Input
Amino acid sequence: MDGRTLTPSPLLSSTIAAQALLATGNDEACERLLPQIAEGAVAALVWPWHAVEITPVLDHPEITTAPAGSLGGTARYVLDGDLAEILLASDGTSVFEVDPGQPGVVREHTPTMDLTRRLATIHLSGAAATRLGDWSPQVRDIALAALSTEQVGAAARALELTVEYSKTRVQF
Output
């Protein structure tokens, strides 16, 4: 969503996913996936909440890896996760590419009060995954900065509308 116009779009989710992809340092995956994202493919990142919180909760990961390299677990509040054509997932240690259409992936739209923000619950059950590289905690910082710019844009537009209304309002 573009904050200034409140346009619902997968800009935030795709930006975060692209940054997680870049942080892996996997040139092959970047060359293959980044052009798709730039052309408009929706990308989403399933990442552990303990990677977002100030104080990590390492004993409750949402996504876990099995010895065979498959992923399991449930992640909630995944930005555009139900629409994603490119799905990346992290267990807090590594970043994986997951085919969103495979049988081990169930994506459910999560209804919210904000109809402009698409959130999903992603259930992974033995989902085949390709490890792309290490998880970088800097992805959280980039995500927070991107969210902040969106919020600043929305606040600026709200202020403009308020000032415009104040100039034309007639009190009775």
Observations:
- Residues 138-168 form the longest helix (31 residues).
